[in-house]
Give the backbone structure.
Amino acid sequence: MEFIVTACHNGKRNYKTGSGFGIYIPKDIRENLFKDIFKHPKDQITIQTKEGSFNANLPPSFWNKCNKVKSKHIGLWLIENKIQHWDQDVPPKAKMEYLDGKTFKLSRYQE
């Protein structure tokens, strides 16, 4: 299963370390796919990229109002792919693909 995610930041992004960045998971994906996969409120998602893989926490707020996954590794991926800068109303999109277990693949989005 593939779906589109959008980049986000907390206003304090660091272009060297990647901190302050994340991605928004569509709410329907959170409700229909993630809730079936992640059974514990503090589970971790494994994200694979062409550069490698990393784990990111799914904080309790992810399951309520904020469908955001934050990680410096996401920021480093955005920087590596040269999509770390954007106009406030037009964040870059990326593609996520569910692989298996708690593992997803993050890649560039091509329209």
Summary: The longest helix spans residues 27-37.
